[in-house]
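[recover] target loaded
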């Protein structure tokens, strides 16, 4: 199934967020028919259909005969991990994935491929060596233990993939997308937050700066998804990240350079904890070392347009500025 051969019908449950917008826009521009399943009011250039992510409904008819399902459903993790938020984060991923598995497995003409969101956070805190799909170690058994919030994220990721691969869909190929942070030049996402810090002189290293940052440019993320759709020989977990993660101190220095900011005040871990409390988020997003590499993409011939952070940061900053 080559996306270049004919227009595809692509259904994206939970596609109203940043990553969903990246994919919907990318595939729409290429002439494919995109249908986003969304729980709330949402207007877009592509078709949107309501679903509650909990029960079958009219939305299931859009999966019948579709070529691709890309499930991105799940509550944002950019929040404090309170008991209520933990329940929402966990249930929104597990139950929606289980529901899609039941629906896709019951269809007479199901999608040929189902790509389900996962996360690079599934790997352990890695300072020593890269984590790929073949030899990477899943988290949860770190020597000396790990913060409770980190272990919660790992449990979510593991259970999410378990329920995904447990689904009985004999006519549908499945890929778990273990994605790094996707950087886009738009307000409200990780690139915007880090850029704002860099631009006001607070873009120094975070913590001790030795932790690794895994990342991917939005264009390469969309291209990697397109590649996974086309490659019928790829299934199972696939890392979607740049092949070149950076130490946090270098990552922030390169970002400052892209913004023409020579200096940045560092943020020690205790200061980050206070800032995270104020911003209603968790320090895991910047302190956990994610040294993830995309072995399976590279082995099968995927070529990144933005393999290095310096090139990617320069492009993202240029696009940010051009959009005012």
């Amino acid at each position: 199934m080559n996306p270049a051969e004919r227009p595809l019908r692509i259904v994206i449950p939970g596609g109203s967020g940043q990553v969903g917008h990246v994919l919907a826009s990318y595939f729409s521009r290429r002439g494919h028919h995109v249908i986003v399943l969304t729980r709330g009011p949402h207007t877009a250039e592509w078709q949107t259909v309501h679903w509650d992510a909990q029960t079958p409904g009219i939305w299931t008819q859009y999966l019948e005969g579709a070529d691709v399902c890309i499930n991105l459903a799940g509550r944002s993790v950019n929040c404090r991990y309170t008991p209520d938020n933990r329940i929402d984060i966990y249930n929104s991923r597990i139950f929606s994935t289980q529901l899609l598995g039941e629906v896709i497995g019951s269809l007479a003409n199901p999608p040929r491929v189902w790509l389900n969101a996962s996360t690079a956070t599934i790997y352990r805190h890695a300072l020593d060596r890269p984590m790929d799909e073949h030899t990477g170690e899943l988290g949860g058994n770190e020597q000396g233990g790990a913060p409770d919030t980190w272990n919660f994220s790992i449990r979510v990721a593991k259970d999410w993939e378990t329920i995904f691969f447990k689904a009985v869909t004999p006519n549908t190929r499945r890929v778990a997308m273990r994605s790094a942070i996707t950087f886009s030049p738009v307000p409200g996402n990780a690139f915007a937050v880090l850029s704002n810090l860099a631009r006001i002189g607070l873009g120094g290293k975070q913590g001790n700066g030795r932790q690794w940052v895994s990342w991917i440019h939005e264009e390469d993320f969309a291209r990697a998804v397109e590649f996974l759709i086309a490659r019928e020989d790829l299934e199972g977990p696939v890392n979607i990240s740049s092949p070149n993660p950076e130490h946090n101190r270098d990552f922030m220095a390169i970002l400052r350079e892209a913004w023409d900011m020579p200096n940045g005040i560092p943020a020690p871990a205790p200061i980050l904890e206070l800032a995270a409390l104020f911003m209603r988020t968790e320090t895991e997003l910047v302190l956990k070392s994610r040294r993830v590499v995309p072995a399976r993409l590279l082995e099968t011939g995927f070529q990144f347009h933005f393999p290095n952070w310096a090139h990617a940061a320069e492009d993202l900053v240029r696009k940010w500025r051009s959009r005012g």
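[recover] notes: The chain has a mean pLDDT of 95.
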